[in-house]
């Protein structure tokens, strides 16, 4: 299996598992990952997903062996990488836990997640220019929106690597955690998120992502409408009642009619 799934409480840990190719993303890995996540996405008992690799490598990118002999007709007719758009549609929050290399498609995969947490030894980069191509899983778009045009141009045109520290300073990474506690701390953080209302988490993710697609005016209306809609959930009643009763809220209770 190229991807291992493990459930811990309300969190799914999806671990890329192709060590001999440094977790390179061939088509079957892409399908295994996305089909697995689709299943958990609709499960009300899952509130957060952690996507990770090994200590040495998160993911060294798209599989160069698989791609190397393909021509334009193959790539175009297969809409190669098109299926990654399904990953980007997963509603449940996904945290990329990046240790080691996150290069090319590996960096793009991390950027398709909602939060990137890295170890001090993490290395990011979009080296496709060195292969005679450009990023193809959204790198030119997502990197630009995360770090700005000047830095994205620098990184993509030079293909140079980015340290965890530089990635943090640039806004690509939200947090750096020491290697020895890394995955445990990420999972603990994911568990905390997963205790909140899944509906509210999905609404927050969708609204933040919407800000990249529309004007400020439209985005603010979109946010307000979803805010209003959340008043039709049991979780809103529970959250606000618990606050007033000075107790911890218990979200995600399935109502039995
Ligand atoms: N695809 C296929 N195989 C890969 C791979 C990839 N992206 N990256 C590494 N491997 C394989 C190597 O071919 C090697 O296999 P063999 O043992 O059979 O020769 C094995 O993994 C170990 O790799 P290295 O010996 O190169 O390991 P290293 O520690 O010396 O170097 C590395 C590590 C710096 C990550 C180096 O492997 C590397 O530069 N990999 C390629 C990174 C890259 O260019 N990624 C972009 C791919 S294109 C892409 O992603 C397109 C896109 O936008 C979507």
How would you characterize this protein structure?
The protein is of the alpha/beta class and 257 residues long. 46% of the residues lie in helices and 16% in strands. The protein contains twelve helices and ten strands. The strands form two sheets. The chain has a six-stranded mixed β-sheet, sandwiched between helices. Strands 4-6-8-9 form a four-stranded mixed β-sheet. The longest helix is centred in the N-terminal third of the chain and has 15 residues, at 27-41. The chain binds acetoacetyl-coenzyme A (CAA). The site of acetoacetyl-coenzyme A (CAA) has 21 residues, from helix 2, strand 6 and helix 5.
Considering the chains and any ligands shown, give keywords for the structure.
binds acetoacetyl-coenzyme A; 4-stranded mixed sheet; alpha/beta; about 260 residues
Estimate the global geometry from the Cα principal axes: globular
**Roughly what fraction of the amino acids lie in strands?**
15-25%
Number of strands: 10
Structural Rg: 19 Å
- Ligands (ions, cofactors included): acetoacetyl-coenzyme A
Strand order across the biggest sheet? 1-2-3-5-7-10
Oligomer: single chain
Largest sheet: 6 strands, mixed
Could you report the average pLDDT, rounded to the nearest whole number? 97
Structure class: alpha/beta
End-to-end gap:
41 Å
- Helical fraction: 40-55%
Write the H/E string, N to C: EEHEEHHHEEHEEHHEHEHHHH
Pick out the low-confidence regions: none
Number of H/I helices: 12
Offer a concise description of the structure:
This protein is an alpha/beta fold. 46% of the residues lie in helices and 16% in strands.
